[in-house]
Amino acid sequence: MERRTRQKESVYRALVALGHPSATELYEYVHAQDAEISRSTVFRVLSDFASAGRARRLCFTGSDDRFDATLAPHAHLHCRKCGRIFDIPMPDMRSDGGRAERFLIEQCYVEFRGVCAACQGADGADEGF
Ligand SMILES: [Zn+2]
Ligand SMILES: [Zn+2]
């Protein structure tokens, strides 16, 4: 397989394995397996995936852009303690969600902030926001 194609595929596999990595997290993961891959290659491949519709670029409150290989409509649960991100299903509202405003919906980002199950158990009494 051609080197560029091989690198693209390893970036994609890492994206699926990591869930919702930032570009830096993904670079560190891929670089650990393939020391030849450069940071700029990883960043460029991720941007290509986003513009080609092979991955979604996510903008979460207070964090770097993250990437998501899951293209089906879904929302995110974002733990404010550990930063983990979980997918939850969401109906696809693109077809009729904007009808009342005659708005053509192209993208949708839904982020719920809170505390994940593991973090709720971690410290008993929650210190709150
Ligand atoms: Zn958590
Ligand atoms: Zn997701």
Task: Tell me about this structure.
This protein has a three-stranded mixed sheet, with no helix packed on it. The protein has a two-stranded antiparallel sheet with strand order 1-2. It has four helices and five strands. Helices cover 36% and strands 16% of the residues. The longest helix is centred in the N-terminal third of the chain and has 16 residues, at 3-18. It has helices spanning 3-18, 23-33, 39-52, 117-122, and strands at residues 56-58, 66-68, 74-79, 85-89, 111-114. It has two domains: 3-67, Orthogonal Bundle (Arc Repressor Mutant, subunit A), CATH 1.10.10.10; 72-122, Dna Ligase, domain 1 (2-Layer Sandwich). Helix 1 (3-18) crosses helix 3 and helix 2 (23-33) packs across helix 3. Strand 3 and strand 4 form a beta hairpin. With 129 residues, it is α+β, with helices and mostly antiparallel strands. It binds zinc ion (2 copies). One zinc ion binds at residues 20, 68, 70, 74, 76, 87.
